[in-house]
């Protein structure tokens, strides 16, 4: 089977012929129907700081995966051939695209503890988007941010994660405000339920926000959030657009800001996203590409030319 392999920083992905996996005991093989591409993949390809986060190199990238079980290994009784499943990348089974080969190839072998059933009402493209973008956004807003009805919530960055986070916050009953430098996607913010969209979080009044979730993470975006959040407010950092930032210590101390990192989520977070998708209240914007277009699609993502979540569709 042909797979897109990462071989080293600043090296192009290599299209490589690999043997098809055979389900080991306690494992299943999933035929991939959709696999997300995210800024993590851009970072892995361009920033050597990501090398320490990979359990193996070379590796087939693709950590946002949904598909159909085609094989079950010995001892697997709770899942069956034909089940529609997604792979949670944060369980002890490991992360596809890092711990083992992921969805930039047509088949994945994975332990059952990573599997989340996809409701019939959710298609594979959204099923894949939920495994990282959805899970991460839901966890950042709900668990780490503690967002509740009536909160004033700032969302920085309306990319694949930010658009889901904004919609989740709105569905929780919060007042949502977006900071996004691309003015052409401000109308999307309103469609998601946001009350306003501006270029920077600093364009809103100081002390206005109860919670700010930074889905961009470009250093200055996080510093700006710490500057403007209300006294005792919460800033959640999710995005890794840059791997470092400089925070104004005075703002952090005077605002008594609670600055929290948020990384991934749990299978329950994916199930929470699926429930919103199943009811039709959450329909993320996605851009689909074919398997052959993967390298070009990653370049488009790096240039900021993709709206919503970028997903490979194998169907």
UniProtKB/TrEMBL annotation:
Sorted UniProt keywords: Metal-binding, Oxidoreductase, Zinc
Origin species: Bifidobacterium callitrichidarum
GO MF annotation list: oxidoreductase activity; zinc ion binding
The keyword Transmembrane appears for this protein: no
Ranges for domain Enoyl reductase (ER): 8-312
PROSITE patterns named among the record's database cross-references: ADH_ZINC
Gene3D superfamilies: Medium-chain alcohol dehydrogenases, catalytic domain (3.90.180.10)
InterPro entries associated with the record: ADH-like_C, ADH-like_N, ADH_Zn_CS, ER, GroES-like_sf, NAD(P)-bd_dom_sf, Zn_alcohol_dh
Signal sequence region: none
Similarity-based family: Belongs to the zinc-containing alcohol dehydrogenase family.
SUPFAM superfamilies reported in the protein's UniProt record: GroES-like, NAD(P)-binding Rossmann-fold domains
Protein name: Alcohol dehydrogenase
Cofactors: Zn(2+)
